[in-house]
């Protein structure tokens, strides 16, 4: 029996077979080409830019395994087009309820720290825009600036940043894998009040056992310009801080040390000149409702100098006797200087450093600035720390900020400036 064959039917069957077999292959090839194209790279860059709110530049994109995107040559770009930071390799993995980022190495300077601080505060406060948790692992973190930069380059420091959301609480935690304690932890909690309005509170824990550039820490805290203007770019800081906020304000305590302070930068905002390297050690610092409760520490300077006008200003404010050594070319030079200070009864007790014969500054065995005979009121310190051009004291500068945190040792409310201060924008602690 013969089976009827039709050439047209055979051609149609072959065409259907080829189409059904070729289309998936062609689609897979087109998808692979798109995933490796500049268009896909730009789409991915735009999506990441919207997520972080920063400009990004990406050289290449890879997909090593399902759910993982690897970007090479990633740069963070400022609105002016300058590069803030650069990461050779970044891997992004999207899990069910969190995003995981892995970096091979990151060099952190003050500018990048300021960006990271802004991103952390944005994530804590805008939960509607950032509903997902995030984990960031960095294999090697280096510091730029300060004496800590060389140490960081010599010994790789892994770092982990966790942004965790749980109900009405959100937290950012920075840890070093293998370390016993957190480097930084910030928790924001929102509680509904009786009047229906939401009230937020914060808890902050900082533990820096190894010195970190002060400019980096100030950048994270949003105080980069204020701090570097006073301390200089080479200062490093180590210490611990525990603080919390509620409806009445901030309260907490801290201790630590700041090394490599540039004395010239330190006195410049006061309209004075000087030179030398200084260090500050805080044995204990405590504040309640945004005002100082206790402070004990010391400030030491090696060989250096300050202008004679500022030295006279110091001796007058602190109640010291006139200096025994005459100024040289309008300058007061010293071989060593420093003081210890503590708060007692709402006043400041300033004494010479331990082992120094009642002198705050000494040169060739001769007293340049002697020890005050009595405790110093906060108003006098505010006068010293106010700019000479101020119409009245404290009208601005660090002196005005100092009055906003004055301890209530005598039970009276201390005066406040009429408007925002020149430094700190009216902030307390």
Provide an overview of this structure.
The structure is a single chain. The chain has helices spanning 7-35, 38-52, 110-125, 148-154, 214-220, 224-231, 263-267, 308-318, 378-384, 397-404, and strands at residues 55-57, 60-65, 68-77, 83-94, 98-108, 133-143, 159-166, 169-175, 184-192, 198-213, 236-246, 249-262, 274-275, 277-288, 291-301, 304-307, 331-334, 336-344, 347-351, 359-363, 366-370. The chain is α+β, with helices and mostly antiparallel strands. Strand 3 and strand 4 (83-94) form a beta hairpin.
Computed CA radius of gyration, to the nearest angstrom:
30 Å
Largest sheet: 18 strands, mixed
**Average pLDDT, all residues:** 80
Global morphology: elongated
Number of strands: 21
Helix/strand structural class: alpha+beta
Helix content: 25-40%
**How large is the count of helical segments?**
10
Q: Which helices and strands, and how do they pair?
A:
Layout: H1 7-35, H2 38-52, E1 55-57, E2 60-65, E3 68-77, E4 83-94, E5 98-108, H3 110-125, E6 133-143, H4 148-154, E7 159-166, E8 169-175, E9 184-192, E10 198-213, H5 214-220, H6 224-231, E11 236-246, E12 249-262, H7 263-267, E13 274-275, E14 277-288, E15 291-301, E16 304-307, H8 308-318, E17 331-334, E18 336-344, E19 347-351, E20 359-363, E21 366-370, H9 378-384, H10 397-404
Task: Provide keyphrases for this structure.
elongated, alpha+beta, 21 strands, 429 residues, 18-stranded mixed β-sheet
Short précis:
This protein is α+β, with helices and mostly antiparallel strands and 429 residues long. It is built from ten helices and 21 strands. β9 and β10 (198-213) form a beta hairpin.
């Amino acid at each position: 029996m013969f089976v009827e064959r039709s050439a047209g039917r055979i051609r149609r069957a072959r065409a259907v077979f080829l189409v059904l077999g070729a289309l998936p292959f062609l689609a897979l090839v087109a998808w692979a080409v798109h995933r490796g194209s500049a268009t896909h790279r730009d789409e991915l860059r735009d999506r990441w830019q919207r997520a972080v709110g920063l400009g990004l530049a990406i050289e290449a994109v890879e997909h090593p395994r399902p759910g993982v995107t690897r970007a090479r040559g990633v740069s963070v770009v400022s609105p002016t087009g300058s590069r803030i930071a650069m990461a050779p390799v970044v891997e992004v993995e999207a899990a069910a309820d969190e995003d995981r980022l892995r970096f091979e190495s990151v060099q952190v300077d003050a500018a990048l720290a300021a960006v990271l601080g802004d991103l952390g505060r944005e994530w804590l406060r805008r939960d509607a825009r950032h509903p997902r948790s995030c984990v960031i692992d960095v294999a090697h973190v280096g510091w730029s600036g300060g004496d800590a930069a060389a140490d960081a380059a010599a010994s790789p420091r892994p770092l982990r940043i966790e942004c965790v959301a749980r109900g009405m609480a959100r937290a950012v935690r920075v840890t070093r894998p293998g370390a016993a304690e957190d480097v930084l932890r910030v928790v924001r909690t929102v509680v509904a009040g009786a009047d229906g309005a939401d009230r937020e509170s914060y808890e902050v824990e900082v533990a820096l056992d190894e010195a970190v550039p002060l400019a980096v820490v100030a950048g994270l805290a949003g105080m980069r310009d204020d701090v570097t203007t006073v301390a200089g770019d080479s200062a490093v800081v180590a210490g611990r801080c525990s603080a919390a906020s509620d409806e009445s304000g901030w309260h907490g305590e801290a201790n630590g040390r700041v090394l490599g302070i540039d004395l010239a930068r330190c006195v410049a905002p006061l309209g004075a000149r000087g030179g030398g390297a200084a260090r500050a050690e805080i044995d204990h610092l405590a504040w309640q409702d945004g005002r100082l409760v206790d402070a004990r520490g010391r400030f030491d300077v090696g060989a250096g100098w300050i202008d004679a006008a500022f030295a006279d200003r110091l001796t007058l404010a602190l109640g010291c006797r006139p200096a025994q050594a005459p100024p040289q070319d309008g300058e007061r030079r010293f071989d060593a200087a420093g003081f210890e200070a503590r708060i007692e009864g709402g006043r400041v007790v300033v004494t010479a450093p331990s082992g120094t014969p009642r002198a705050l500054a000494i040169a060739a065995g001769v007293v340049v600035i002697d020890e005050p005979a009595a405790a110093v009121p906060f108003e006098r310190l505010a006068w010293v720390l106010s700019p000479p051009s101020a119409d009245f004291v404290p009208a601005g500068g660090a002196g005005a900020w100092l009055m906003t945190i004055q301890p209530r040792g005598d039970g009276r409310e201390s005066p406040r400036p009429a408007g925002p201060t020149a430094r700190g924008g009216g902030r307390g602690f």
